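Aim 2 progress update. The chain analyzed this quarter is reproduced below.
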Amino acid sequence: MSSTLPNPVPAVSPGSEEFWAATAEGKLLLRHCDDCGTPIWYPRPFCPACGSLNTSWFEASGRGTVYTFTVVHRSGVPGYRDALPYVVAYVELAEGPRVMTNIVDCDPDQVTVGMPVRVVFHDTGQGNALYRFQPDPSAGADR
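Predicted structure tokens:
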């Protein structure tokens, strides 16, 4: 298993402040279009499907499946070099959107497409946390 990944502070824009504040509370928020019903990722105040500004936040379940992934064995990024190997993945959330993230608390060789995962939060020390995903062994019982 790789070393601990660094927890860099994310760039927070005016449209994503509420999202990042919620991560500090262990909540994964998504926006939802109140006009067409589309769940919206990445955090932004308008619907990319219909252009509506009529959107609202909701708390996501934090569950999903690995859509695709790669194991990084070489990195020039400071901090990440010390965490090799690590997994970068797209996770398809139960609510529909796919998010780019890391898979943690798992041997990179054990990650598979379709693997059930759940969100975990890694504190940046700056009032927010990074969302990452770990294997969800309880998924078979709940799904």
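The mean pLDDT is 93. Residues 14-138 form a domain with the OB fold (Dihydrolipoamide Acetyltransferase, E2P) fold (CATH 2.40.50.840). These observations will guide the mutagenesis experiments scheduled for the next reporting period.
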